[in-house]
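[Backbone geometry]
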Amino acid sequence: MDLSTDYETNATAIGELFEATFTASEGAEEGALIGALARRLIAETPAEDLRVFTAWENGALLGGILFTRLTYDGDLRTVFMMAPVAVATAHQGKGIGQRLIAHGLDALRQEGVDIAVTYGDPAFYGRVGFQPVTEADLPAPQPLNQPQGWIAQSLTDAPLTPLCGPAACVAAFDDPVLW
């Protein structure tokens, strides 16, 4: 498996991966929503606010994760949100997602990012170090429909301590439907 950060030349394939994966697991409406989100994140988010990691094998895209910057008005720490995450349906259950996530988190650590947050299944993401947080400790940029899915981890030796908000996300995520 080869890992890549080249998202610009692979933007079409990445968008298709997210749409197909979410369509298979959540239905056509969710697939279209997440596919459009991935495409918009890649096309519109400034490079300094976006990190994309993909996994490939023999020219086939196996999985992808996107990280986008979150900012907190009252806090100087650097925070990135991991979302969306997808592994091609035929390749799920092989550890590809976990390896891709670990690789992305390590890259962010090396960059000096302080905190990673995501909005997803705590049981799955707990396997790669994410822990539940409250909106009081880590404000979300939009009201959360499923607050139990708001999870984070420190990427430094410092413990995860409350962030001072309010929070702001990149433009593509600034839509209540996504939260």
